[in-house]
# Entry
Amino acid sequence: MYKQAVLAGTFFAALAVILGAFGAHALKQVLTPDLLQTFETGVKYQFYHSFALLATGIIYSFIPVKQIRLASAFFIIGICLFSGSLYALALLKMNGMVGLGGLGILTPIGGVFFILGWVVLMMGLISKK
# Structure
């Protein structure tokens, strides 16, 4: 087992539950429907990739190749950039700020890291003889 990936997966999953509840209860009253949808998209992708981290941690027990560890790192970076930027965007707009400005590029960069994580995971699985 790749313990760091499993720990990160459980941490990000727990955080997604907290943020999802926060969005559904506290933010529902103050965000527009579009901003609430943006926040929920961040939570959804955080959850998906929390499970991906759990899977990579377990897969590493059977296929201990560097690509599996790299995929885990890409998923963590993707969660921080993609979901984190969506949370920040929703909360900044809620407070009357225009948005992330030039930092808005973090969302698609985070998406690229998610894609890289899946591709590198696949490469690791294929590399096993």
In short: The chain is about 80% helix and 0% strand. Residues 3-127 form one domain. The mean pLDDT is 92. The radius of gyration is 16 Å.
